[in-house]
Structure formats: structure tokens, C-alpha cells
């Protein structure tokens, strides 16, 4: 009944097969997306505030390549070398060392006269007055004034040859002379004069 040749197109895929293929492709894409979402990502540095300092530095170093770490170390070494060649004593790698040296220099200042403006009530002599006076005092160390007496006395104390007596085995920064007498009125309009209140000259005794 049919004449000639007729071409037959391939049958279309069944809905179940297309559904299976789409579900397989969806599952593969979802698995790939889930795998990409599950991939570990480095959190921002701001989120690591509550972590330990060691973990923060570890995360920071992990973000650098080996070449960048070498470049960082070279830059720090170069800064250290420049600071030493320029005669600076405060190392940039250790900023706290400079503050310690400043405190050490402050502790080893020589004995000298200083002054401070205070009220009479702050002198601790039992007077109640709002008047202010210039109080001069002695401050500083006396390491350069150590004599053979001080060294021998210190040795006798360390050997327990001197036990009960209260002795000072080093010179002390004290007034050698005192300023003029100081007069003032207290809170009840009573007149007072205090002698040997402020230092006039300081020395190691």
C-alpha cells in the first residue's frame, strides 16, 4: 500500500527518561554547588577578634605566599640594620624596649633641686589653710657618690656583721641647706611661720 521509501525519525524520549536525566543533571549541579559551598573559605580578619592571637597570626601567615613572607622578613631585617647603623637605640622591632630605657634613665637622674606649688594644708604639718607656697625638694639618685664607706657598710650587712642597727649603705639625695622661713595665715586668720620647710641646696649625704 505504501510506495517508495519513507524515513522514520527516532522516537522522542519518554517523559520518565527526560525526568530522570533532568533530575540527574539537577542532582549533579546541586552536588557541585553544595561541594562549592562546602569548600572552606577564610573568614575575614574582623570576624576573628575573639580568637587567640596565635590563630590570628597563623591565618595571616597562611594568606601569604612563601615569596611574600621572605620579602616581609627582609624588610624587617633591613629596618633593624638601618636603625643600628644610624645610632638609634630604640629598635623598631621592639618598641617597648625604648620605654623601658626611658624609665631607666628617669630612675638614674642625678640629685637635683625641684619645686612644686602646693597648699599649706597639703604639707601635712597640721595647718588648715588655702594659701599656696612654693615647696622645693631634692630628687634623684646618688650612684656616682658611692664611697668606700658605703661599699664596706654594704659588705658588713651582707655578712651579717651588722644586724640590729638601722644603717643606710648608700648615699641619699638630701637638702644641704634650707630656704627662708615660710609665713602664712590659716583658716582661722592665725599667723604661723615654719622654718626649714623648703630645700635650698641638694646633695648626696
UniProtKB/TrEMBL annotation:
GO BP field: glial cell-derived neurotrophic factor receptor signaling pathway; nervous system development
Pfam families in the cross-refs: TGF_beta
Residues that span the membrane, as ranges: none
SMART domains attached to this UniProt entry: TGFB
Keywords recorded for this protein, A-Z: Disulfide bond, Growth factor, Secreted, Signal
Domain annotation TGF-beta family profile: ranges: 100-205
UniProt biased composition (Low complexity): 9-41
GO MF, any single term: growth factor activity
InterPro entries tied to this protein: Cystine-knot_cytokine, GDNF_fam, TGF-b_C
Compartments where located: Secreted
GO cellular component, one term: extracellular region
Purpose of the protein: Growth factor that supports the survival of sympathetic neurons in culture. May regulate the development and maintenance of the CNS. Involved in the development of the neural crest. Might control the size of non-neuronal cell population such as haemopoietic cells. Acts by binding to its coreceptor, GFRA2, leading to autophosphorylation and activation of the RET receptor. Heparan sulfate-binding is required for signaling.
Complexes and interactors: Homodimer; disulfide-linked. Interacts with GFRA2 coreceptor and RET: forms a 2:2:2 ternary complex composed of NRTN ligand, GFRA2 and RET receptor. Also forms a 4:4:4 tetrameric complex composed of 4 copies of NRTN ligand, GFRA2 and RET receptor, which prevents endocytosis of RET.
PANTHER family: GDNF SUBFAMILY OF TGF-BETA FAMILY, NEURTURIN
Family indicated by similarity: Belongs to the TGF-beta family. GDNF subfamily.
Protein's recorded name: Neurturin
Organism: Atrichornis clamosus
Lineage: Eukaryota, Metazoa, Chordata, Craniata, Vertebrata
Gene name tied to this protein: Nrtn
Amino acid at each position: 500500500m505504501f510506495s517508495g521509501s519513507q524515513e522514520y525519525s527516532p522516537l522522542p524520549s519518554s517523559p520518565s527518561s527526560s525526568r530522570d536525566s533532568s533530575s540527574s543533571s539537577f542532582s549533579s549541579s546541586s552536588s557541585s554547588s553544595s561541594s562549592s559551598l562546602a569548600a572552606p573559605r577564610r573568614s575575614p580578619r574582623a570576624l576573628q577578634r575573639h580568637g587567640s592571637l596565635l590563630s590570628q597570626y597563623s591565618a595571616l601567615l597562611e594568606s601569604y605566599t612563601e615569596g611574600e613572607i621572605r620579602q616581609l622578613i627582609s624588610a624587617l631585617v633591613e629596618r633593624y640594620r638601618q636603625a643600628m647603623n644610624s645610632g638609634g637605640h630604640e629598635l623598631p622591632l621592639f618598641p617597648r624596649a625604648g620605654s623601658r630605657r626611658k624609665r631607666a634613665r628617669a630612675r638614674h637622674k642625678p640629685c637635683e633641686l625641684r619645686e612644686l606649688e602646693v597648699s599649706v594644708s597639703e604639707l601635712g604639718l597640721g595647718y588648715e589653710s588655702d594659701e599656696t607656697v612654693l615647696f622645693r625638694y631634692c630628687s634623684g639618685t646618688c650612684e656616682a657618690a658611692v664611697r668606700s664607706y658605703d661599699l664596706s657598710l654594704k659588705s658588713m650587712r651582707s655578712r651579717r656583721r651588722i644586724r640590729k642597727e638601722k644603717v643606710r649603705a648608700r648615699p641619699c639625695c638630701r637638702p644641704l641647706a634650707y630656704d627662708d622661713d615660710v609665713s602664712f595665715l590659716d583658716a582661722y586668720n592665725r599667723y604661723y611661720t615654719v622654718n626649714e620647710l623648703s630645700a635650698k641646696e641638694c646633695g648626696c649625704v
